Amino acid sequence: MDIVFSNIKHAFFQECASDELIVILHLHLKSPISIGDKPAMDVQFYKESGIAAEDINYKGRHKMNEMDELEQEEAERQQRARLNKRFLNFAKMVQEASERNNTPLEVDIPEDDLTFTGCPMKQVVKIRPTKRCLVALSEFPFFVLDVDDIEVVHFERMFYGMKNFDLAIIKKDFTTCTRINSIPTEFTEELKSYFNAINLIYLESLAPLKWDLILNQIREDFSGWLEQGAWT
């Protein structure tokens, strides 16, 4: 399988940490490529931390004391550090090679401090912002949303006593509404601060809106303005 630099839209490096058992180098493409018999927009290379898997037979025969547990925790920490270093060094080599090829590629790193949970597709996952995207890379199907494509975000089901809210994300083409559902309300202010920081307008309402109808009306109005010469 060949992946050319010119077809890579975003590249991400995500560390293996205490709450993440894999280290990841993830490529989000501009155009899909065939993997097996299916088109794919995302290609991921990962390695799982092997020490994290418990030896059930050993533990059945040996009761671990406090020192054993401390030694195992330290061994796991050291292995995660080695994996992170190897993948980060490779990511840097990819970045340098892209520059030599006159197709510069920046390897982006998700921000753990701004992690929140939500359901962008089939299940609740951890979503992390990067410099240019919102991503969920630890589980398939992957979620990559370029913030430069966003026109406005809308907080829905925002009323007192609600434990979760939904986020409707309107693209600049006014044809696409991407949803992240079931976000715990504890992340409300954090997300609003994040959207403020990247200069994105956000709105909120008590109930979900019918975005298909709204976007259709916006496109019709826009076409009318063009026909009347009112849009320059």
Task: Describe what you observe in this structure.
It is a single chain. The protein is of the alpha+beta class and 232 residues long. The chain has 2 domains: 5-108, PH-domain like (Roll), CATH 2.30.29.150; 112-228, Roll (PH-domain like). The protein is 30% helix and 33% strand. It is built from 4 helices and 12 strands, in the order βββααββββββββαβα. The protein has helices at 56-61, 66-100, 188-197, 211-228, and strands at 8-14, 22-35, 38-48, 107-108, 116-118, 125-129, 133-136, 143-146, 150-156, 164-171, 177-184, 201-204. The chain has a 4-stranded mixed sheet, covered by helices on one side. A 4-stranded antiparallel sheet has the order 5-6-7-8, with no helix packed on it. The protein is globular, with a radius of gyration of 22 Å. The N and C termini lie far apart (46 Å).
Secondary structure topology:
Elements: E1 8-14, E2 22-35, E3 38-48, H1 56-61, H2 66-100, E4 107-108, E5 116-118, E6 125-129, E7 133-136, E8 143-146, E9 150-156, E10 164-171, E11 177-184, H3 188-197, E12 201-204, H4 211-228
Parallel strand pairs: 1-4, 9-12
Antiparallel strand pairs: 1-2, 2-3, 5-6, 6-7, 7-8, 9-10, 10-11
